[in-house]
Amino acid sequence: MTSGVLYVHSCPPALCPHVEWAVAAELGLRVRLEWTAQPSAPGSLRTEIGWRGRSGTAGRLAAALRGWSVLRYEVTEEPSPGCDGERYAVTPTLGVFRATTSANGDLLVSEDRLRALLAGATGPQLSLGIDRLLGSAWDDELEPYREAGEGAPVNWLHQVV
Length: 161
What we know:
Blueprint: E1 2-11, H1 16-27, E2 36-37, E3 45-53, H2 57-65, E4 72-77, E5 85-91, E6 95-101, E7 107-108, H3 111-120, H4 124-134, H5 136-148, E8 155-158
Helix pairs in contact: 1-2, 3-4
């Protein structure tokens, strides 16, 4: 078992029930999310929920929400015995970014990915390649939506296993 957080940074109001149904289907329980206005996207809503469930739940939640191209969201999963942590960031313009995370939340980049970057990049290309590996474009796009959610309530959901 592990835990994580789903941050829906912006969602059209008409889509909110569909997001709740998708999360409920993945977690195997009834879900009622508390939606609040998203000041960074007038007319949109936001929510945060903590969850507890099986390893891999973050990926399954990210996939369940992927079909709606207007959503901005992030899903995190804490490391658990035998499993690394994960972070998914999704935006309408950039699509999906996935990274492995350490126990303290740092992104981990495998040596193979670093070797491939170093083998083919020099100068400014190297810097751009590192930014891509770290998902900097997703962080840049999501930061205004994250700041608008500071102090928002977080509910906890427990997956049925």
